[in-house]
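Quick one: structure for this chain?
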Amino acid sequence: MPNIKVLVVEDDLSVAEVLVYNLKKEGFEVSRALDGRDALNQARLKLPDLVILDVMLPSLNGLEVCRTLRASEDTKNISILMLTAKSEDSDQIAGFSIGADDYVCKPFSVAVLLQRVKALLRRREQAAAIKNQDIVSYKSVSVDRRRYKAAVGEEPLDLTRSEFRLLDTLIRQPGRVFDRAELIDAALGEDTMVLERTIDVHIRALRKKLGAYADVIETVRGVGYRFSEAMHEEV
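Got it. Here's what it folds into:
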């Protein structure tokens, strides 16, 4: 993957060196930061495609770095893979809830981590490619923006406006975790004042209408929902 820029943010020198070596071996352009503030400076300066971000960092922890990157117009679309020794569900929920795209726990297999990196970058490319397409289809589930129609196979889905917007948002970025607030904005509008749990009601209704394909919409406990990346299909 030539010309793909990756920023490794890791204060453990031995881990950082292993990551940098293997990423360069795969053809990535790699830079490194050893603390949170340096990570933010480098991200703003170099605008990497992906950041591998340790949680436990000096000066500014990884969660704060992730939150700051997502809050900036220049860096909000950078892919972020959190890397940490913590494996509790609460830590993963915290990472996903502030915008991390994926989460890998130490100790890790370099080969597995590289595959996760490549999967994130593919997802990024796919999202860019289909962003403005009228019709998107995954494993027999399709959404047509122009005609405002959705279907499973040849069977049309009778969706409300909110259900259609939810499905359209999720299907265009398979594998990405959307928190409830993001889905409320997408389905109901930014100015809508509703409880976040309201989105759960819409998701349940949408799954019921999807029938046998209901499991394409996965629950990420404590955060929100995503369209199953395993169901991805080129069209």
